[in-house]
Write a structure and sequence with these properties.
By secondary structure, the protein is mainly α. About 60% of the residues lie in helices and about 10% in strands. The protein has one domain. Helix 1 packs across helix 5. The longest helix has about 35 residues. The chain starts with a helix and ends with a helix.
């Protein structure tokens, strides 16, 4: 049995309402994976310390190790590695593709 126009509109409205969460989750996952991949590995501790929390329409990606910021931004004795910042910039530049992937997933 096919849906009535009213039912189709309700289904479409539900999809539109869920879209921001899907897009945030897709972008966060992509940034998270890229940051982990870019993290230099000596013992693996820094790479394993990445954490991600996804809320309703926001996400947080962080690394609580004390030296993570020095690896990301560098110091007087170390060149910056750019793990998270570069990943955020890349995903932002690819936002059309990220949105398309998020909305394709069911």
């Amino acid at each position: 049995m096919s849906q009535s126009f009213s039912e189709q509109c309700a289904a479409w409205a539900a999809e539109v309402e869920a879209a921001p969460q899907k897009i945030v989750a897709e972008a966060a996952e992509e940034i998270f994976e890229r940051a982990k991949h870019r993290t230099p590995v000596l013992t693996g501790r820094l790479r394993d310390a990445w954490q991600m929390e996804v809320g309703d329409a926001e996400a947080t990606i962080h690394n609580d190790l004390p030296y993570a910021e020095k690896v990301e931004h560098g110091s007087s004795k170390q060149q910056p590695q750019g793990m998270l910042g570069i990943s955020v910039a890349e995903v932002a530049a690819e936002s059309d593709a990220v949105v398309a992937r998020a909305l394709k997933r069911e």
